[in-house]
Amino acid sequence: MQCLYKVSSTLRRIVLTQQLHTSAVQCDVQNTEKTINQVTLLGRVGADPQKRGSEDHPVVNFPLATHFSYKYESGDILQKTDWHRISVFRPGLRDTVYKYLKKGQRVYVTGKLSYGEVKLDDGQVRTASTVIADDIIFFQSQPQNT
What we know:
The protein is mainly beta. Helices cover 7% and strands 54% of the residues. The strands form two sheets. Strands 3-5-6-8-7 form a five-stranded mixed barrel. Strands 1-2 form a two-stranded antiparallel ribbon.
């Protein structure tokens, strides 16, 4: 395979086109294709943050709930909640999150999506996804009407 690159000057995007002329791929490191791994979430914290890892490599984790509503033609409304695992490695952000973030608080999280494997107690291996937080914006908690 031969790598050909076409650069759009107006959008500044790199488009990768592959031609099947040879079986080996040789692409100059300078001209490798760009990728984006960016996640933005706005939701509520599902539990108080927990510290994990070692003293040399600490991490703070917390669950974040996001939801969306869908209205059927019959008028019934379905609300689906998705749970996201958020991991914070950046030292200043990690300490602030651990100290001040509480369950139920609304936060805006930006970061990247990462996948790994988790071995369960019964020996099964599951794929787990986590959002590695680059930035977290805290919103002031407001009392909910009961």
